[in-house]
Amino acid sequence: FSAHSLRGADAGTVAAAVGDAQVLVVDQTRVPAELIRQLSAAVLIIRHGDGYDSVDIAAATEAGIAVANKPGFWSAEAAEQAVTLSLAVASRLGTQQHAAAEGARRGSWNLRTVYPIPRLRGRTVGVFGYGRIGRHYARLMHALGFHVIVHDRSEPPESLTEAGYRSVTFEELLHHADILSLHVPATPETAGLFGEALLRRMKPGAILINTARGTLVDTDALVRVLQDGHLRGAGLDVTAPEPLPPDHPLLSMPEVFVTPHLGWYSEEAMWEMRHSIVEDVINASRRVPPASVINREVLADPQSRAGCYFNSAFPSSAH
User: Fold this and answer.
1) Which residues, other chains included, contact 104 with Cβ-Cβ below 8 Å and sequence gap of 6+?
2) Smallest Cα–Cα separation from 118: which of 142, 92, 147, 86?
3) Using one digit for the tens of pLDDT, what is the confidence trace for 81-114?
4) What region does 180 belong to: left with phi over 0, alpha with psi -120 to 50, or beta?
């Protein structure tokens, strides 16, 4: 086993360090097609976390390399971050904090700078994407007294009704949500989806929450619709780019909370996932693939590199 700090490194540098490894575990390092072509022995790439948009899946599949992620270990943490941001923006917590600091300097509070604060209970929360994280977020917000509407093309409407939510079209989601929380992966279909035209189709005065991927939202467009008041605020654990430039307008808007892409994090979740990755690597050395392989077709193809490796009865080792 070997470990390398290769975040931001080019494909050649990464290949020079790990090009002969059979199993790669990657966190922030990107694995583009250029790098995959230089992996002479790899049969498995394990992405440290839920998202795997940093790995070129098509190129890995073409090379016969299986790609796995580690889903679900911090679904609760990500959902709780979305809830925290939702409540902070909706209750104008940043403006309240500023008023308290100003009041401390002046000796009295000017609460007119904070008003009005709407009653949160009974407001409508829109959930875009009903996977593990979206499901947990919906449950928490519903428990707090919010009405929950959900748009997810693969979720049966009756299951949402049973949970106490309402299944809606995408247009209905935009039109009715006082708080719209994004819980969909980064794909070619969702990249830049929330551009200016779509943001302006959201309910006037609504709040946008993004703990999924920064690329879902056009950052410049979001600034414009916040500055002209069409949207009331935003809570962003992810942005494009990451991190934002130090003088970026989003960092100084009182109705916007930006956190450093930490919605996934808790100490417990981190160590549980690390233990699981070690188990996957040990199992791979025994020619047993992970349960969460994304491109499973390579395992079914006995002519592919991964298919040949994992379907062989001969012992080997993983690096």
Assistant:
1) none
2) 92
3) 999 999 999 999 999 999 999 999 999 999 999 9
4) beta
Cβ-count burial 217-240 (b if 16+ within 10 Å, e if not): bbbebbbebbeeebbbbbbbbbbb
pLDDT at residue 313 in the model: 60
* Strand positions, DSSP E, 194-298: 206-210, 231-236, 256-258
DSSP characters over 47-90: ESSS--TTB-HHHHHHHT-EEE--TTTTHHHHHHHHHHHHHHHH
> What's the pTM?
0.86
Sign of CA dihedral 74, 264, 17, 20: positive
| DSSP line for 120-173 | -TT-EEEEE--SHHHHHHHHHHHHTT-EEEEE-TTS-HHHHHHTT-EE--HHHH
> What is the set of active-site residues?
213, 242, 261
| Structural element, H or E, at residue 221 | helix 219-227
Q: How many of the other CB atoms lie within 10 Å of CB of 113?
A: 14
The C-alpha atoms of residue 34 and residue 224 are separated, in whole angstroms, by 37
Q: Let me know if 300 is exposed, middle or buried by CB neighbors in 10 A (0-12, 13-18, 19+).
A: exposed
